[in-house]
Amino acid sequence: MDLRRLLLAAALAAATNAWAQDRFIVVSSTTSTENSGLFRHILPLFKQQTGVDVRVVAQGTGQALDMGRRGDCDVVFVHNRDAELKMVEEGWFVNRHDVMYNDFVIVGPKADPAKVADSKDVVAAFSKIRDAQAPFASRGDKSGTHAAELGLWKMAGIEPKGDWYRETGSGMGATLNTASGMNAYALADRGTWLSFKNRGELAIAVQGDQRLFNQYGVMLVNPAKHPHVKRDLGQAFIDWLVSPQGQAAIAAYKIGGEQLFFPNARR
Amino acid sequence: MPDAIFADPRLWQIVGLSLGVSLSAVALATLIGLPLGAAIAVGRFPGRQAVIVTLNALMGLPPVVVGLAIYLLLSRAGPLGELGLLFTPQAMVIAQTVLVLPIIAALARQAVEDAWREYEEQLRSLGVDGLRGALTVLWDIRCSLLTAVLAGLGRASAEVGAVMIVGGNIDGVTRVMTTTIALETSKGDLPLALGLGAVLICIVLALNAGAHLVKQAAERRYG
Amino acid sequence: MNGILPLRLEGVSYAAGGRTLIERTSLTLEAGASTIVLGANGAGKSVLMRLMHGLLAPSSGRVAWQTEGPRRRQAMVFQRPVMLRRSALANVLYALDAAGVPAAQQLRLAREALEEVGLAHAAGRPARVLSGGEQQRLALARAWALHPEVLFLDEPTASLDPGATREIEAVIKAFDVSGTKIVMSTHSLGQARRLGDEIIFLHQGRVAERASVEAFFRQPASAEAAAFIKGELPWI
Fold it and tell me: How far apart are CA A217 and CA A11, in angstroms?
């Protein structure tokens, strides 16, 4: 009887030990970042350097931040600066670092019913779209992209309502599918747009406006709130992201020769 | 496109994980569900009709709701957070087992109840009833029960809501066929998504064909 | 040895679906004589058999055996045999196991029983592919293996052709010779004559007459019995 218990305890210890040796962290990030393909490019480089597996759970920014609050991940990597700083203040995250930025673009039907193509003023473009009652597909899902879109409507002094304004309540790719199907305008991050294959009649209508700037930040879940958080491994990932190697890896990621993300971590 | 995906080792890893998760869930659900259904079929206890109605209704549990419930249970902020099971294949197996269990139990209950009418007198005459009688009938009608198990397998391999929420669709770890199809669709890569869908259907078809052959062989052997 | 006979029915009645199927009946079954429960279809033979065997609980009165042993000392063969999806031998083994016979003896007893009914050659075949007559013989083998004190048979040959019927009757005779009390229901007068020692004649749920076989057929005491023998009994 004793021997059997001893063997069982040994087996259990070996198994859990083996599990722990499999060094990994869970990072919650956004669908737009995942869909762009960035992680598939940079994570193997990180693993090569440190031997740590990064498991990315991709969802909307709201969900991703909530995951950090619940302690279901070790690191959060999203693009909604105001929400991120608020939660650091509330003590859910240790601190926040800038990592990179990309930009949003407005895509729309080549036929361009609102006459906004090649405009450099996104706020004016939004006004024209509303005036023309041209169909607009919004994410409507509390994501970083959605927050940016709402901010732009606010800047134009418009509350978007009506048949022309369609909230899909889904991720970037699904919203673009809907826009493509409806020949509607939509706000998308460049990364998702560049790797999006179902464009239909859509093309980039507006880009380059400073207000379309989209900043990414990374945060460590606060071990004081969630003792199980893998503090060291998580911090190693954050340190790597803002390090010269990490920043170079981000800059090196291109789709069709075009760079998607622009590293801007501060020393 | 078609040749490219078959050459990609990632596809076979995803297929392997899908089969592993769904088959494990169906196995667990069968182990629990068959005796459970048989016991309800043969037993007589207060509230039996309510139990039967509830069990039948649970066959229609929405996968995304099950996923959400299991997520809340396994989340660090939840009661079973200590186990650290969230975003692992084990969590996916748990969620799919919960989803499939009512299907197998409800269908087994019906099958055993129908068969019990034929067997009851003879078994009771031999002094066998209660759970032992139920299990004897269960084993005797095992070929018909295969359909219930296949229904469960169909549900498990087809659903995306539960595994997406509790698994997190993590590349290389919890990404299965259905969540990959959802992902590729959201990336606008519709031909790839369709191709994967075709692969999934072929696999499920093959499993069903295999089960059918086994059933036919058994019927020839046992009458 | 404490036998389970005699069996006493005391004021036993049975009603279902608003109808009385068996009226208040008191009777005693002693060891030895083969008892035939005779009557037309719907007279209540099957219900009475099931009440005696314990498959049905009486609506009133009680069914009392001499001793209540832990091992079932009675067996029943139904009109249509119910076999498990296993070999013939496995079906007999199942019954032995259910009765609590020690594992070491099960195989020997099962093979002896199959031998007794002439099915030794079919031991390995799936029971469900056997013919109707063979399955009924298998049911008898299943009962034989248990060496019961009482064997109930509910119209065992009603679904069989004359050849199979003869084989079954031969086995029943063998049971009788080996000391098992036979209690059999039938609506066949010829069968009653061939196999029975005494007759319990049922008419519309009531014991209309009980007599030895010779006395019953020579001079039935009740009008219903007389009509039945003459073949004039109206179907209920």
Answer: 42
For A72, name the nearest residue in chain B, comparing CA atoms only. B76
State which residue of chain B sits closest to C143, comparing Cα positions. B126
Q: Give the confidence band of A13 by pLDDT, cuts at 50, 70, 90.
A: low
User: Per the domain annotation, does C156 fall within a domain?
Assistant: no
Put simply, the answer to whether B222 touches C86 (Cβ < 8 Å) is yes
- In Å, how far is A138's CA from the nearest CA of chain B? 15
Residue B175's closest chain A neighbor by CA? Answer: A57
Closest to A198 in 3D by CA, of A181, A216, A217: A181
Domain containing A187 equals 102-212
> What are A104's two structure tokens?
């949003």
Final residue before a domain boundary, out of A212, A229, A254: A212
Q: Give a yes or no: residue C119 inside a domain.
A: yes
Residue C96 lies in a domain: yes
Residue B176: name the closest of B195, B198, B159, B191 by CA.
B159
Are A141 and A167 members of one domain?
yes
- Residue B23 phi/psi, 5° resolution? -65, -40
Task: For residue B87, list chain A residues with Cβ-Cβ distance below 8 A.
Answer: 26, 55, 57, 72
Cβ burial of B124 (10 Å; 0-12, 13-18, 19+) is middle
Q: In Å, how far are A30, A89, A95, A96, A220 from A86, measured between CA atoms? A: 18, 5, 11, 10, 14
Domain encompassing residue C138 = 83-147
Residue C115 buriedness (CB in 10 A; 0-12 / 13-18 / 19+): middle
Average pLDDT, chain B: 92
pLDDT at residue A37, rounded to an integer:
87
The average pLDDT across C134-142 equals 95
| Helix, coil or strand: residue B105 | helix
Burial of A46 (0-12, 13-18, 19+ CB in 10 A): buried
Q: How far is B76 from chain A (nearest CA, A)?
A: 6
Looking at the structure, tell me whether residues A197 and A228 fall in a common domain.
no
Does chain A reach chain C with at least 3 CB pairs under 8 Å?
no
Total domains in the fold of chain A:
2
Q: Which residues make beta-bridge pairs with A137?
A: A166, A186
Under an 8 A CB cutoff, do B76 and A71 touch?
yes
If one counts the domains in chain C, the total is 1
Least confident among A102-106, A156-160, C225-229: C225-229
Contacts of B125 in chain C (CB under 8 A): 53, 55, 75-76, 78
Q: What is the CATH number of the domain that holds A107?
A: 3.40.190.10
- Mark whether A170 and A190 lie in a shared domain: yes
Whole-angstrom distance, CA of residue B53 vs CA of residue B45: 14
pLDDT-derived band at A90, boundaries 50, 70, 90? very high
Q: What is the pLDDT of residue A6?
A: 65
Question: What residues are paired with C200 via a beta bridge?
Answer: C37, C210
Domains and CATH numbers, chain B: 9-222 (1.10.3720.10)
Are residues A119 and A193 part of one domain? yes
What residues of B are in contact with residue A35 (Cβ under 8 Å)?
183, 186-187
Burial B2-25 (b: 16+ CB within 10 A, else e): eeeeeeeeebeebbebbbebbbbb
Residue B180 burial (10 A CB sphere; 0-12, 13-18, 19+): buried
Q: What is the ipTM of this complex?
A: 0.89
Which of A40, A196, A226 is facing B187, going by the closest CB pair?
A: A196
Would residue C221 count as lying in a domain?
Answer: no
Q: Are residues A96 and A197 in the same domain?
A: no
How many percent of chain A have pLDDT more than 90? 65
Are B222 and C85 a contacting pair at CB < 8 A?
yes
Residues in C closer than 8 angstroms to B215, CB to CB, are none
The first and second tokens of residue C28, run together, are: 């005693």
